[in-house]
Amino acid sequence: MHNELEGLDIKYPPNATVNQKAEIILNALRQTTVAAKIKREIKDELIKSKYTVGNLGGNLPKLMDELGCSLKLKNCIRELEESAERRGSINGSNPEIVTAQGKGVDASAVPNIPKLTESHHAISEGRAKWRSHILTELQGISSDLGIPFARHRTATTEQARQNREAVLPSETLPPPAERSDGTETDVTNTKQKVFTRNRPPVTARSMLKNICDIRSANHISNTTKLYGWGLIQVELQIPTPDELTEIFNELNPSNRQCGVDEQILKEKFTDDCIRQMSALLAKNDKTAIRQRLKRGAPVCLRQAIWKLILDPTSNEASGNEKRRAHLEALQQDVLKVELLTDDVLRKDIRECADDEKYFVFDDALEKVLLPLSRDVYCTPYATKAVDAIKGFGRGSPNEVLPAYPPSGIIPADGLARLCAPLCFIFTNLVDVYFVLRAMYCRYWSKLYTISSSPSTMLTLCKLFEKLVHIYNPDVAYHCITAGIRPLEIAFPWMFSAFSGYLEVDQLLHLWDRVIAYDNLLLFPILAAAIFLWRGKSILLCDSYNEIRHLFTDFSKIQVIPLLQYLLFA
Fold it and tell me: In the chain, what is the straight-line distance between the N-terminal and C-terminal CA atoms, in Å?
């Protein structure tokens, strides 16, 4: 069913009313096989002699419940709503095409690739600069490595790759220089610039710099005489503390939470959670499961819960074979075609494997991440983050890639760390791949998106700064007077979805809630809670490095109590 729904071209128009949305969903529902099967099941049941025309109206809702049709219909409508919401802000575009040498060519014959529509002029310019930066980085990697964006993989190219990997570990950027106030200078702006030959095009530092460069004409201090204390110099619509408390009301300490109460109530609490969630899984009630997941998931059921929400086809008999065949086809493409981004991904995987928690997963990560860069399913979502970079590939001058890489996913620093925790949950690589793909399309792509849309990185940063200012103005003022920006400390945490910082069990408790609430607002909330948790120590610090050293150890961080502390204390 999931594949069928993704194939439907449904999306909400801007400022659609409730009635308009209902009409769109109803029209889409009529086109699904689910609706046809439900009609057939009800018809087959109604022809039996125990039903009469007189009692049909009263018995129909009960009949649908008994046949399981109500739940199927509810799950189908839920997926249609999610699909329409994800596609609602996408319009057509046709960015330039680049060759491996970076020269622009006519794009008139290339099919449209979706991109995010941005109404804010300053942010739109920031997106264009961000894309230009990434394109320059890709061209620099191509020039440094001496390989095109894409080419057929041969014995010669494979030997060349192995030779590169034997040399690359020693060719890294020098440590960043420190400013007089203890902050780091931007290496790219100094004469010490040394190209790391397979550096990721997207890093936390480069993205933060681009975000901080965005300035609104209505927010310039020379005009308004108002000097913003934060790094985000554009005004955005973000939730208030009261609205956040309402949104995340299930996290209230009055509700039992996985990740907290099993440490106190031991087996009784765990057994109750398992029993309740197992009953919902048996009914296949996706909406109720997602609601219950807002309080966390038992460890033994997390795999089944995540698969049901993120990868529904895994529960269909025919779906498993299609999923396996799809991944195998992508893996074969990896063996046939070498992409420039493969080297970047492999370097990221090696760095992830240096972590003692994840070193056993290096082979699995390569078998998942390289195919992901070739999966065109991701293109509409990845190109929301960075407008599509088109390019010639595979050695043919007549073949044009609608997006480069084919998935549109530009390798980001730490992408492997977004995949590695899934290997603790799923033993089957097919499950790891499709859950990762769903999470990237729904959530992680937004971490690399510069936009005024909700839950994208710009709004997350703005919310973090606002929370720090509201909940502890003394700490905010101390940081300002010391020339320290809290966002510089917290940005890498949010950029990585806290992977590589939190312990794995705490990270998965956090991701449980992200999936349940279907948004990323918990990241700036947790970042602000962690930052303010050290508030008294921060007031004793006078430099960036002193404050940064306060946050070098996350091993004792408990996610749920900190979220509750900020939202409800």
Answer: 43
Cβ count within 10 A of residue 189: 9
Name residues whose C-beta falls within 8 Å of residue 205's C-beta, 6 or more positions apart in sequence. 186
Euclidean distance between CA atoms 201 and 141, whole angstroms: 9
Residues 485, 479 contacting (CB under 8 angstroms):
yes
Pull the structure tokens for residue 279.
Answer: 């009953």
Render 233-275 in DSSP notation, one character per residue.
Answer: BS------HHHHHHHTGGG-TTS--TTTTHHHHTHHHHHHHHH
Total Cβ atoms within 10 A of residue 117: 15
Q: How far is CA 450 from the centre of its chain?
A: 13
Q: Which two tokens stand for residue 282?
A: 């048996």
Q: Which residue has the higher pLDDT, 107 or 361?
A: 361
Question: What CA–CA distance (Å, rounded) separates 520 from 443?
Answer: 7
**Sequence-distant (≥ 6) Cβ neighbours of residue 430 within 8 angstroms:** 320, 323, 324, 327
Pairing of strands 97-98, 400-401: unpaired
- Residue 391: beta bridge partners? 98, 401
Beta-bridge partner residues of 105: 97
List, for residues 99-134, the tens digit of each pLDDT value. Answer: 333 333 333 333 344 445 666 788 888 888 999 999
Query: pTM (2 decimals)?
Result: 0.80
Q: How many CB atoms lie within 10 A of CB 52?
A: 8
The burial class, CB within 10 Å (0-12 / 13-18 / 19+), for 92 is exposed
Q: Are 246 and 567 in contact (CB under 8 A)?
A: no
